[in-house]
Every structure is written in structure tokens, then in C-alpha cells.
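step=encode ok
step=design start
structure_in=
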């Protein structure tokens, strides 16, 4: 990006959102079509306000392109969303599923504290359905996308809000030795196992498609 760093862009996205971090925000409902249209315009203005230059290819980005290309042959609707994204101290990792039109999302936030669910430990697993160029998640968020940027829209206190992320690279599967965006050593074993179990049960994958 010319004249502005990636960090500056992410900071500008973050200013759009108010209240708690969007990863664990409790969306009261899906944004309406009218709210979503306004948020989409806001999202595009945020992106278009920066002069962009062609990003240099990196092994991570090239790997993601190959991954997306393979999935475009079996589930093209999900392809623009696939990848690893960042915003400040948040990470969002969007995976394909063996069920067509479904995506699996692992959200992470640095830090965390003790608790009996995964969220206090800074991890949230959700499933979304792709339709008409958006992802609708099971916790009432709607994701929109343009180029290398992802917009997370949700509703708090009856106000529609937006939080933006920037694409950073390819996907790696969660495992006993790795959770995306985390040093696995800081997580209790039961947290790791719960995320891995949910990932498998939803038919999620970080592999190339195995169907023709």
C-alpha cells in the first residue's frame, strides 16, 4: 500500500467498530438488507481511501492461491473467503467444509483468561453458510468481502456495526500442536481438543478437495 502501512489500514478498520472486540461480540440478530448495504458502502470506502500497489507474492499467498484454485472447481462460492486474516490482535481463519456452501471459522484473540468454555481462552469456533456473496454464521454475523479484505458485520444494542480484516496468508489445520493464531503451549488440553473435535464434526478441512 502506498503512503499507508497495513497497520494503519487495520487501525482504520478497527475505528469503525465500537464496543467490544468483534470476535466474541454477541450479535443480537443478522443485519437487515438495508443495514448491510450501508455497511458494505462504508467497508468499500475504507478500502478505496487507500492507494494500493500490487502486493509482492509470498510463499503463503501463493499457497493460498493454489488452495483456492483447487476448491474453485468444487465449491466456487466459498473460495473468495478462504484464508487467514488479521486485525490488530485478532485472527480469523476461514476454512472450506466437505459440505458444499459451508465454511468453518476459527476466531482468535491474543490474551484470555480462565473459564469453562473456549471463548474466555481467546478462541471461538463457528460455522457459516455462503449465499449471495456473503457468509451468515450461526451466531448472527454476516461476512462481506472485497479483494484481500473481509468485513465482519453484526448488531449490538440494535446498532449495525462493522469490523475489518486483511488477508495475510494460507490455512493450517488445528491440531494438538497447533491452533491458528496461537502458541498452543498456552492453551489447556481440553480447549485444544474441543476446537479439534468441532472442526472435524463440521467436516472442516485445510486440505485440497477430495471430491470431483
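sequence_out=
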Amino acid at each position: 500500500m502506498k503512503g499507508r502501512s497495513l497497520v494503519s489500514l487495520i487501525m482504520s478498520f478497527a475505528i469503525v467498530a465500537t464496543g467490544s472486540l468483534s470476535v466474541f461480540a454477541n450479535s443480537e440478530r443478522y443485519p437487515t438488507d438495508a443495514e448491510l448495504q450501508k455497511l458494505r458502502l462504508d467497508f468499500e470506502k475504507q478500502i478505496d481511501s487507500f492507494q494500493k500497489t500490487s502486493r509482492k507474492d509470498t510463499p503463503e499467498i501463493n499457497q493460498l492461491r493454489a488452495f483456492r484454485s483447487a476448491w474453485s472447481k468444487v465449491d466456487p462460492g466459498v473460495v473468495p473467503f478462504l484464508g487467514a486474516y488479521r486485525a490488530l490482535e485478532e485472527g480469523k481463519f476461514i476454512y472450506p467444509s466437505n459440505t458444499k456452501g459451508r465454511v468453518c471459522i476459527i476466531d482468535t484473540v491474543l490474551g484470555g483468561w480462565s473459564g469453562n468454555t473456549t471463548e474466555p481462552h481467546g478462541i471461538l469456533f463457528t460455522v457459516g453458510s455462503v449465499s449471495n456473496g456473503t457468509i451468515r454464521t450461526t451466531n448472527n454475523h454476516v461476512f462481506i468481502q472485497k479483494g484481500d479484505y473481509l468485513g465482519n458485520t453484526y448488531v449490538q444494542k440494535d446498532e449495525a456495526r462493522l469490523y475489518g480484516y486483511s488477508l495475510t496468508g494460507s490455512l493450517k489445520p488445528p491440531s494438538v500442536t497447533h491452533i491458528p493464531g496461537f502458541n498452543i503451549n498456552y492453551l489447556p488440553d481440553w480447549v485444544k481438543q474441543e476446537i479439534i473435535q468441532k472442526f472435524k464434526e463440521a467436516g472442516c478441512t485445510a486440505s485440497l478437495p477430495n471430491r470431483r
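step=design ok
step=annotate ok -> The first helix runs from residue 6 to 16.
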